[in-house]
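ugh ok fine here u go
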Amino acid sequence: MHQYFVSSGLFLFFEYIIHILGTWRLYQKCGINSWKIFIPIYNIFIFLKTYNRSICYMFFLLNPLTSIVLLFILWMDLIRSFGKKTKKDIIILFFSAGLYVYYINFFEKIQLLKIEKIKKKEDNTGILLAIIFSFITQTYIVQPFVIPTSSMEGTLLVGDFILVSKIHYGLRMPMSPISIPFTHNNIIGNIKSYISILQWPYFRFYPIQSIRRNDIVVFNFPKDSNHKVIDRKDHYIKRCIGLPGDLISIKKGVLFVNHKKEKFFSERQQAYLIKTENIPLNIEYLKNKMDIEDIELIEEKNDEYFYQIMLTKKKAIQIKNLFYNIVFMKKNIFPIHFQEDCIFPSGWNRDFFGPLYIPKKGELIKLNLRNIHIYNEIISYETGKKIKFPSGKDYKIKNNYYFMMGDNRHNSYDSRYWGFVPEDHIVGKPILIWMSIDWDRKNPFNLFSWKFRWNRIITRIE
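structure:
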């Protein structure tokens, strides 16, 4: 919940800058005092009262989508006061994304004609339409998210604010129709924002594109035991490395799909063990200049310093060349016989995994003592029952399944630990980073520590 308000507040701040820069001269001509124009939030209240609009519009500021609608409502009211009230003016305003207001504000020498007061009935209709439009957009088309963890570094960073398309992989219709709008699963603490008694069955429209191998995907976490309704489970974001029917395995930390080594991509991170002598690593430099966050000092002994750092291959080479006192550096790969706790299924680890077959809808899988511990989770999900003693009979798979992994391979809680993602848990495809902030991960609400990553703002997610 706090992540939602952080992203909404940030979006609102940028809207405030855009709005004031493009309208302050016009509002002065309307007789509004300068100090009232520049005070955030309060100025919106003044603008609404000027045009006799309901203060209920203030609630539009709580959501990024409705706040955009409010911005255009204020702009339309303003330009009408200066005689710009034809259909042509309104069309230009919308298709110029508000730049028409800037043109009027800075380049046209016009005088105030009359402040048109909005009739109460028209005002209430506008509020209702704006709320409906915003709700439909967020529920059925595109939804904002913020990246809270480092599991996808260095592709997606903590503090990236992203937009996720819900129609690329086929729009999944809501399964919990009775819920509080603009909330996900909880309001405050463990108080749920929905009623789980009434549930719609799973239905998905035809997709624009199918999930492709190595796509980044947002999905509902299958093992979320706090929420039984699928579309109310917590949201996760990972890279889909295995499609239905694929055979995956990991050897010495290297992923193989259908016996083929995965293609190299520069954003993939792994854990590196580093040892220095006499002088420790310059942690401040690594964080501020190289944007490296996951740094752990394991041990300090006899002027020797031992670290574990999550690095891409490129940054590992850079660090080795920068610090002359590094005497030891290698990937932290678990040995083949080490059995990691909580791995799926038991007996493997993050660096030696599989081979594991990903089930495909309609396939028949012969169950036996060697694979029942792998596919019992699927059988339980699809039938509600588990098989204790397999009889060698075939089981027909009812859903497609996917295998998800984080790009930060040694710091990601993913399918290696909790298993497959059913098709009905897929939410959508991330398409855009609209804002990115490098904040203090221990205290993200310390606004004074925020640094904007300008090179990531308004960038496509590949």
